[in-house]
Amino acid sequence: MQTANPRQTEKKEHPSGDKRFKVLDITMKRAGYNQSALIEVLHKAQEAFGFLEEDVLLYVARALKLPLSRVYGVATFYHLFSLKPAGKHTCIVCMGTACYVKGSGKILEDIENSFDVKVGETTADGEISLGSARCIGACGIAPAVVFDGVVAAKQDSETVLAKLQSFSQ
Ligand code: FES
User: Does the beta carbon of 99 lie inside 6 Å of ligand 1?
Assistant: First the structure.
């Protein structure tokens, strides 16, 4: 059985403090830092971040000890991965258990109805790309919504819709 690299398991959180990197760590650790888990890890990254930013690709490449070119190659080959958000802004609603029990399902539904957009799509005006994630590692501040990469705590429909309206103006 392959064991995890102790250096990687001891690794502290990402310097940005963004807990979504911790979610990536958990996914990679569960896979024993196996390079064959690359696609699964990129899936998780896209779900948590909405798209695959360069520093996310770099983070994954380092952790799995893969050349960045290989990680880029996979990320660009599969159409389901995107390196850039389609919209000017991104909004990712966490639908993990902690967030869901605190109302994230209703928040997502209200966004879809108010902006006539579905998860995985971008509004017709190209302003907002909507996504959902299963857990972004911020359960203590549920329900969490990520606006343009910044995690917002204890959200409700009113706050989220107001924020998205400000994006659309
Ligand atoms: S369930 Fe939403 S951050 Fe964990």
Answer: yes
Cα(78) to ligand 1 centroid in Å equals 27
Q: Are 57 and 138 a contacting pair, CB within 8 Å?
A: no
User: Across residues 140-156, what is the average pLDDT?
Assistant: 92
User: Which residues are CB-neighbours of 136 under 8 A, at least 6 positions away?
Assistant: 19, 20, 23, 48, 92, 94, 96, 144, 146, 151
Structure tokens at 154: 């204890």
pTM of the model: 0.68
Counting Cα atoms < 13 Å in the Cβ hemisphere of 29 gives: 12
Q: Is 98 near ligand 1, meaning CB less than 6 Å away? A: yes
Evaluate: CB of 4 within 6 angstroms of ligand 1. no
Residue 114 has pLDDT above 80, yes or no: yes
145 Cα to the center of ligand 1, angstroms: 9
Neighbours of 40 (CB within 10 A): 14
**Environment class of residue 82 by beta-carbon count within 10 Å: exposed (0-12), middle (13-18) or buried (19+)?**
middle
